[in-house]
Amino acid sequence: MNVGQKSETPEVNKMRMMDAKNLLKKFHELQEERVEAYRLFEEGFQAYIKCAPNYNFPMYRQLVHEITQGFKKISEEIVKIQQDFVELQSMPNVATFIEKIQEDEKQKLELTVKLQLATQNSIDHSDTQSYKEECEDLKQSMKETIEQINEHIEELKYETEDLFSQDT
């Protein structure tokens, strides 16, 4: 991959690659924040369902609100990084991988919420097999989505390896 444009001087190309590296570093930091937010979301959900049937819904609602705000902030920052790769870095391929990751992360969040609802339903209606089956289906979909995210992250690493192979 040719990271720089042919008309750029080596100094300009080097500076742009440094900026691209910083954007990529920030993207990975935000992905780590997202992983941590999912961990907290799952911990909070587990605490919520342990109280069955006397759920503390106000506490869970507050958790969902806080997690949603965190995901929104992360997503907005990643969209900005994606735009910077197109507009400032002239690296639309990198932006495309980031966009794919964003789309899959959105799907993962939707599946997480559905799985939490299905899990609560399977606890509240333990005699209904369909809720347990729904949980298993959602877990499988979640696994596939996570695998897809990881594949896109690997593709992104491959696409950007030139940024890290040149002296800066």
Walkthrough of the structure:
The chain is mainly alpha-helical and 168 residues long. The protein has a single domain, classed as A middle domain of Talin 1, CATH 1.20.1420. The chain contains five helices and no strands. Helix 2 packs antiparallel against helix 3. The two termini are 17 Å apart.
Q: Which key terms come to mind for this protein?
A:
168 residues; mainly alpha; A middle domain of Talin 1; 5 helices; 0% strand; disordered N terminus
How would you state the average pLDDT, rounded? 90
Write down the CATH topology.
Answer: A middle domain of Talin 1
Strand content: under 5%
Number of strand elements = 0
Major sheet characteristics: none
Measured on Cα atoms, how large is the radius of gyration? 20 Å
User: What is the annotated CATH architecture?
Assistant: Up-down Bundle
Number of structural units classed as domains:
1
Helix proportion? over 70%
Shape verdict: elongated
**Counting H and I runs of at least 4 residues, what is the number of helices?**
5
Judged by helices, strands and strand pairing, the structural class is: mainly alpha
Low-confidence stretches: 1-6
Report how far the terminal alpha carbons are from each other: 17 Å
The oligomeric state is single chain
The top-level CATH class is Mainly Alpha
The H-and-E topology, N to C, reads as HHHHH
InterPro entries: REX1-B
Pfam families: DNA_repr_REX1B
Write the layout of secondary structure elements.
Elements: H1 10-50, H2 57-87, H3 92-124, H4 129-159, H5 161-165
Helix pairs in contact: 1-2, 2-3, 3-4
